[in-house]
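dude i think i finally got it to work??
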Amino acid sequence: MNHVLVFAKTPYGKTPYDQWLAGSGIAPVILTTTEFAPGYGHLPHVYAFDDYDTNQLVDKTALRLARDPGLRVRAVFARAEADVVRAAQLRQLLGLPGQHTASALAFRDKVVMKDHLAGGPVEVPVYRLLDSAYAAVEFTAEHGYPVVIKPVSESGSLGAAVIRDEAELDAYLARPWRGAAQIETFVEGQMYHVDGLVAGGEVVFVHPFQYVNDCLSFRSNDWVGCLPLSPQDPRYDRLVKAAEAVLAELPTPERTAFHAELWLTPDDRVVFCEIASRTGGGMISAMVRHAFGIDLDKEWLYAECGLPSTLGTPDYRPTGCLNIPPAPGVLEHLPAAGADGAPDCLREISYTGAPGQTFHGGVKSGLYLAGYVVDGETEEAVAANMDTVAAWYSAHVRWRTASPEGSTP
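look at this
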């Protein structure tokens, strides 16, 4: 039996690798978090780690397993942003097919990424590595405010800050991001994302979506949603062509999912934000599954393992999704499917918490407490249904104030 080594930073219910690979002659070897390990517990090769993102024993164990002749590891799969580089480094070290280190860094490090794209067919904001406070002062003196400062290698808008004046810059510099960061000019406009799949060096699936609210909505504990564009929408081709142009400029691997973010500005320019060599976070994969009948993660896994695609010709049904972050406090009740007057437009519900848990508000845009997939007869109906679902959630979720530390509830 051949094996694929999987960096599995997702719960089993979202990524049932053994079910996807059933009958293929390939079985998964799972490296995962302590939290998610029980879900994979029925599999023979499961390795769990605390502090998964930064724990280098994950990498050491992966190398040992990949070199085990009894396992016959033939591929490496990683769908989480935190695993992109460690998986690429492992493939390169072992000579396995797939994305190698230089490609992974181009899709992970926002400065390296923009270095590849600057001067190309898709406009890029003015940017630079923020390696000191001096760099921030010089950049704002040259380009003015507002600017955006964000980590070079995070996802979900974690650590991103919009700086609108010198007072806000001072506040940022007093408590800066502790890792590598970049600074860029602020782009006014509506943000979109384009998600797709590359197999055999060709884009075999692609579709653009509009963000509803924005990727920083979690800062105010508000929801962010994704709304598909109709193929007849004039924005559709422009965004698809821009995403494909970005892929052509980057060292894109022969097989990868991708999640690109682009702006359309008030003066009708397409401007690049960033791109990742993975599927989109939050409920995006579930949305694509309901909208097109395609499981992007499964198809990407098949491509990495050299298995035949089951993609077929997708049918499109207007479908969106929304991710609702937790509020600060103790969760007392979540609205239930089939109860609490659940709207008929709901197609999938995902809750990542349970009553009794204490939360401290939103952390990043892809991390949600409540995730919903919503459909409708048209894109306009989907947008209205998303508002309906958000209002339903707000009307039925219940919170109580958390007791001060050390006190009795």
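The CA atoms of residues 301 and 379 lie 30 Å apart.
im so relieved honestly
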